[in-house]
Amino acid sequence: MERRDIARYPFVKAAREAIQEWGVTPEEIASEVLYAGVRRRGVERLKCAIEGVEIPPAPLRREEEIMAELLSYVYSRMIVSAIAEPYLLQWHAHAESDLTYRYLMADSTKEGERPSRWRVVVEVAEELNLEISVNEESFVANLGRPQEVWMHFTSFLRHSTRLSGKEWRLINREVKRGWVRLRWEEFLRLLREGARERYSSTLTAILTPKIVDVMEDDIREVEALARERRERYKPKPLKVVELECFPPCMKRILAMIQGGENPPHHARFALTTFLHSLGMGEEEIVRTFSSTPDFDESMARYQVRHILGITSGTEYSTPECSTMKSYNICYDPDALCNKEWMKHPLTYYRVKCKNLGKTKEG
Ligand code: SF4
Fold it and tell me: Measured over all CA atoms, what is the biggest interatomic distance in the chain, rounded to whole angstroms?
């Protein structure tokens, strides 16, 4: 890795070592005039995450630029830690993993005389604990990198569950002695998922009240923006009686969304059709998805309109339980789900409402 890579891939060991070497403390980052630019960039990273736009890459030619960029990442993490809202952590993880992905793409590409830096990409994968084996025989001269990578199935399963599409199901992959063959582009997609997991699972050390006090203005600014985004798309609360009757799978998908997670594609599809069957319209369904870190209103609206048949002419129906199971989204089945005759989430809903003495047809 080159020196600049510690700022491009801030989760690597060398980045942690560099911060220790510099001896800069969280208190100094938060308070010293010297780090005003670092704080501005840290807040900018979070603004991009909240607005759902790309974090622009920073120039990383000189040591001061590398240091400022890495510390700005640390500062944005400090703000996320101080606010401690799961949805903000997920938005942040989504935007940062997207930036990482763009760097990985650039490093995988040969440009004129500049060779591809694919070995750096492999190092990043190792830092993210992805078990891989690179087939150098698949090296393609004009791409300047191997064409394929083999990934251990445990790493593959850990990071492919959120991805939609049949190609991400192990049953549809070529597997040899526990290793899954991936095209380079697929490998990068899984790396992005690995980075997202890393960004959303590790937080900075607990901040002292004194540091939080110094950061107050930035915390307020970020909190206000996050609140604004949530208000803008606030879903109408579902009536208690309806929620009580929801099958466990739909409850879990809703909980993922409300907790700021990105549910898998099939889960979004199932929830959209389910809510529509209960009488919810385009607007309410789009708003339901607004807490997801990757929320893009126009894209969400396009997909919802397609599923509702507004643009496609086909009104899709809620998948049966057997289909939900085959997509691994039959979450937390309970005793009612285990009845032999239980075949459909809407059947669950009707029966549950009836059992509760509050019949509520969809
Ligand atoms: S059995 Fe059907 S209703 Fe129950 S959790 Fe699974 S998919 Fe949902």
Answer: 73
Output the CA 245–ligand 1 centroid distance in Å: 12
Mean pLDDT computed over every residue of the chain: 88
Enclosing domain of residue 239: 234-355
How far, in Å, from the CA of 330 to the mean position of ligand 1? 5
User: Nearest residue CA, atom 4 of ligand 1?
Assistant: 337
What integer pLDDT is reported at residue 201 of this predicted model? Answer: 79
Domain identity same for 50 and 153: no
Give the total number of structural domains in the chain.
3
* pLDDT tier for residue 273 given thresholds of 50, 70 and 90: very high
Residue in 246, 317, 324, 347 to alter for ligand 1 test, most ligand atoms within 8 A of Cβ: 324
Please check whether residues 285 and 311 belong to one and the same domain.
Answer: yes
Say how many Å lie between the CA of residue 326 and the centre of ligand 1. Answer: 11
Atom of ligand 1 nearest to the CA of 348: 3
188 and 287 assigned to the same domain: no
Question: For ligand 1, what atom is nearest to the CA of residue 330?
Answer: 6
238 with 161, same domain: the answer is no
Backbone angles phi, psi at 323, to 5 degrees: -70, -40
Name the DSSP letter for residue 145.
E
Task: Tell the burial category of 85 from Cβ atoms under 10 Å away from its Cβ (0-12, 13-18, 19+).
Answer: middle
The distance of Cα 261 from the centroid of its chain, to the nearest Å, equals 7
pLDDT in tens, 113-154: 777 888 999 999 999 999 999 887 888 887 888 889 999 999
